[in-house]
Each structure stands twice: as structure tokens, then as C-alpha cells.
Write a structure and sequence with these properties.
With 205 residues, the chain is mainly beta. The protein has 3 helices and 9 strands. It has a 6-stranded antiparallel beta sheet, with no helix packed on it. Strand 4 and strand 5 form a beta hairpin. The radius of gyration is 26 Å and the shape is elongated. The two termini are 47 Å apart.
Amino acid sequence: MILARIDVFPGRFTRFGPLSFSGLETVSPGYVARLARWRDGEVYSQTRIEELRADLRNSNLFSKITLRLDDPTDRSSDAAPPGDPELDASAQRPVTAELVERKHKIVSATIGGTTGEEKVFGKLGWENRNFWREGETVKLEAAASLIQQSGKIYLNKPNYRRRDQSLQVSAELRREDSKAWPGSFPASRMKTARKPTPLAACRWR
């Protein structure tokens, strides 16, 4: 017979304290705060920390993300169980997000040639991934060749009305001088896109 003894030390019972940020330059602190899936005073969960880390990473706004659980200023309650009426703000641990923003603006230019009717073509692009300080992406693109000219604009607003939904708007004006399709051709589109839930993703496999 083999007897084994396992000692489990659950550690101190604690709750989420205030969430603060450092390193924000152009991104709105309110927008980042809304990504957190907990409220002050909620029982601490490492899962909530990892969810915030993933949301910050997926926003494409930051090149470095560090989440730190700070020690409470009052250490008087070392083992207060859940529901203990003596539990107060001294059991809360503040969370600090240390962030480094990425470059949000991109300018691009392309020039080339073909053996077809276009002969020479050029393209200019401009993009801002944080247009209104809440992770909105705005893209402008202008292209021209000997037979075709076009202008495009694209907007993507993340977390539109709910966390997993984005609003996408695009518009384009194209003009052709070709023999087959001469004329101007405007087009526009607006839609909402939603990330699939784990259950929905499983159904599609």
C-alpha cells in the first residue's frame, strides 16, 4: 500500500480591484477598460486576465502587453472565505496593464507595368488603425492606369454594439476607358460581422 499526502494551499481569497493603464498615447483608456470582462469587487479569476490579454492582442493596437496583479495596500484579511461579511475593499487587488502602442498609420505606394492595355499602373494607400481612438480602421486607396482609375474607402469599427461584432462600411468609384466597359461604376456596402462562438465553430467542422 502506498499512501500519498498532498497539501493544497489555495492562497489568499481576493477580488478584482481597479483596472489602470500605463503607456496609452492615442488609444482611449475608456475603450480599453471596456474590454475587461470583470467589475471591481468581483471574485478574482485568472481566466478573466487571459481573456483581457487575448482581446488586447487581437485589437492589433499594441506591440507589447503586460498585465500585473498588484498587491493590496491593506493585508489584514489573509483568508477571508467567499461570502464572509468581514470581506471589504482591503481584499481587492488592483490590476495594471502596461501597454506599448503600435504605429497606427501606414502609407503605401506601388508602381508597375504590364504588357496589356494598362501598360503602366500606380497605387497609393493610406491606413489608420485607430482613427477615432477606439481601434477603428480607416483605409483610403487610389489606383490609376491608362484605362482605369479608382478610389476606395473602407471603415471597420470593432465591438459595434456588442463585444464580438464589428461594423464594416466600404465605398468605391471606378472609371474605365476600355472599349469593352467604358463608363463610371460606383459601389458601396455596409454590413456587420460577428465572430463565431466556440459552439458555432464546432458545428462547422
